[in-house]
């Protein structure tokens, strides 16, 4: 597990997935080709399932496109930890089954190379040897995450 650390605020959806590809890419591998293209061109070659992204405040601001969330979920990002998130990006991420954790203190404490562990059920985020509590996610949101997203949850519970 690796941490992809971006020490900046206002990382918008165009940095995560350039808008010029919105209508030319499908899902999955096509999105990954351009994921983080304008933020970190090496991201695609470095990212592995289980990795974590850490960033500043207002992560995911900008458009309401789902490609950034879909792409991060497709490559297996375990969680995105930031000082704050754009509201529409937060909900889109939950709907796609991508865990977001807001913890300004943990982001400020993090030093590249620190081990990071997150448990959404207990609300514990551990950075190096320090724990940062956050509100545990409600059972319905945990169920959506466990199902891999809202559509999967609906299929499982209404079949």
List keywords for this structure.
single chain; 159 residues; alpha/beta; Aconitase, domain 4; four-stranded parallel beta sheet; three-stranded antiparallel beta sheet; 8 helices; globular
Please write out the topology.
Elements: E1 3-6, H1 13-16, H2 29-32, H3 43-46, E2 52-55, H4 67-75, E3 79-82, H5 87-96, E4 99-102, H6 104-109, E5 116-119, E6 124-127, E7 130-133, H7 139-147, H8 150-157
Parallel strand pairs: 1-2, 2-3, 3-4
Antiparallel strand pairs: 5-6, 6-7
Helix pairs in contact: 7-8
Number of helices: 8
Q: Uncertain segments of ≥5 residues (pLDDT<50)? A: none
3D shape? globular
Share in β-strands: 15-25%
What is the helix fraction of residues, given as a range?
25-40%
Radius of gyration based on Cα positions: 15 Å
Q: Please report the distance between the alpha carbons of the first and last residues.
A: 35 Å
Can you give a write-up of this model?
It contains eight helices and seven strands. It is an alpha/beta fold. It has a single domain (3-114), classed as Aconitase, domain 4. α7 crosses α8 (150-157). The mean pLDDT is 92.
